[in-house]
Amino acid sequence: MRQILSRLLPKSMRSGAITIPVVRLQGTIMSGGSQFRPSLSLASTAGVIEKAFSFKDAPAVAIAINSPGGSPVQSRLIYKRIRDLASEKNKRVLVFVEDVAASGGYMIAVAGDEIVADPSSIVGSIGVVSGGFGFPELLKKIGVERRVYTAGRNKAILDPFKPEREEDIERLKSLQLEVHDTFIDLVKERRGAKLKDDADLFSGLFWTGRRGVELGLVDAVGDMRQVLKDRYGQKTRLQLITPPRGLFGRRLGLFGIGPQAMTEAASAAAGGLIEAAEERALWARYGL
Fold first, then answer.
1. What pLDDT was estimated at residue 11?
2. Domain ranges (residues) in the chain
3. What pLDDT shows up at residue 226?
4. Most distant CA pair in the chain: distance in Å?
């Protein structure tokens, strides 16, 4: 509304302040999620990203990232949507790393024309990891027999209730290498000659923001507010873009928690404990 009113005023009465739209991308990256366990995916972020790029007078879009990674597919989809809109709208993208932009979080970060990180933030972890649990011995102890019937001899590979097979592990590793190559190519394409020749750069290691500058993973250290005001003037306004809400808000029904929210809550309580543990493990990997 302020933008519309500003355009109606004569130039002599306008403040001259530049408004920079800000998008916050925080959380693990995965498809699905719920209001009780929010996550980053193209579906959950497309709206705010497109709204940010709709600011006609803004010379740039600022994106704050705080993510330990997750789905490589969703990471790349978010990255691509940002780059497509930047090209279409002719906007510069400035990415600001908060606590962590690692793995898929860093994949999204390279969508920025510039990456600015806090000196103590964590960046990198350019690699691919798969994790799970195995319970074959537990089943024997409690007297449970696992029964699986398939059409196709490889349909039940990596079953957590059966002992691992070497051929299944090799198959998984070959898939990981392909995904890793895609990640590496994307980083090289975006960061180019800025990257230093370091043997550990694509090994899955991660570094502080300050060290990230030395390695070429990051362009500078700093914080969003100061960087934007230094670049576009002290009157620069930062406008946070948030998801649209219904008349009474999406999270509550007319008289409190709606039926869908109650169903999601019950489902999360019953089946979300392992997913929550895996999500927590992603953050814990970086000491967070």
1. 46
2. 2-284
3. 96
4. 82
Average pLDDT taken over every residue of the chain: 82
54, 130, 140, 155: which is the annotated catalytic residue?
Answer: 155
Consecutive sets of 10 residues in the chain, 288 residues long: mean pLDDT of each?
55 67 95 68 95 96 96 95 97 97 96 97 87 69 74 71 76 85 94 90 94 96 96 95 66 48 54 65 70
Closest C-alpha to 98, from 25, 48, 39, 41: 25
- Global confidence as pTM: 0.79
Active site residue 194: no
Q: Which of 41, 44, 67, 103 is catalytic?
A: 103
Known active-site residue 6: no
Residue spans of alpha helices (H) in 56-165:
72-89, 104-109, 136-141
- 55: tokens are 């600011």
CATH pick for 2-284 out of 3.40.50.1820, 3.30.1070.10, 3.90.1150.10, 3.90.226.10: 3.90.226.10
